[in-house]
Specification:
By secondary structure, the protein is mainly alpha-helical. About 75% of the residues lie in helices and about 0% in strands. Helix 4 crosses helix 5, helix 9 runs parallel beside helix 12 and helix 12 packs antiparallel against helix 14.
Amino acid sequence: MPQGARPTPELAGPADKGGARRQHHIRARRNELESATEARRVERYAVLTMLYWLTPYEFSPTLLGVWLFVALLYARGVRKRRVPRARQWSFWTGMAFAYITLLTRFDFYALHQFFIDRIQQVVMHHLAPMLIMLAYPLSTWRTALPIRWRARGIAAIGRSTPARIAAALLFNPTLATLLFVALVLVWLIPRAMTLAMLDWRLYWLMNASMLVSGLIYWGLVLDHRSRPPARMAPGMRVLSPVLSMTPQIVAGALITFHRTDLYPIFSICGRALDVNVLTDQQIGGLITWIPASMIESVAALIALGIWARLSQRPRGRQRRVRSDGDRFADLKERDQGHEFIRP
């Protein structure tokens, strides 16, 4: 064979065939390593992306501490008493929504895009509080506390005059409903929105007030007990969401069909997405209009189911007289649901 010529497959010897197999195995191994390296790179990128989105835009130790305290207290209560899985799923889903909207990178986009800000407010004011209170968490939180704290601390606070006055105001059905609606409308005023976006203290107040008012309102509407000890009558629990959604529908429609920019603060601060100003405003108005009213419609249906269940109880049980012999049964009924401080 001439020097430098490559042997044909028919004339290749055993040594040449072995070398070809080794080269094939080396190339296959190299491809496997490259594929594994690429897979690790993609996995690392996905993890870093997830961590980026889960990192708070503006870290708030107070907010994170409150969230962790509430979550850990509920987890401790679940270990001490039997809580249906459906209620646990409802609670943790609501807590997850609250975390995502307040303690992740989502907050940055809410500050720089009107329709995302509306998503944040609907979740904080409607969806997350409704899911949390649908789980009836107050009895679970109370169970998590040491008996000494419940007997001496919470009971003493509940009997104090300031606590009774605060409970009478905050948990009054009429005032809670008015506050629930008023906060939505107040923070939609362009001047109020501008101030909240420029001052971090007002922005924190806006988010906190929306979340707390939502928890109080949905706690009253979704209470599954008869009145008393519930503060709102079963029929009013069905009617209240219908009444409270009407002003929000009107406000959402006005924003949707308005032909000028009502919230120029988002253009001044810089919009996060390349979306037309009026399109952004129209989407935000629709979110205030439709998803919020849908959530309240679902809550009204849940309240209607509770009313139907309560109406099937004997009348004497609903109007039980609180005597010494009935105290244990009344406490047992409270533990199945949730109880606000009595005025």
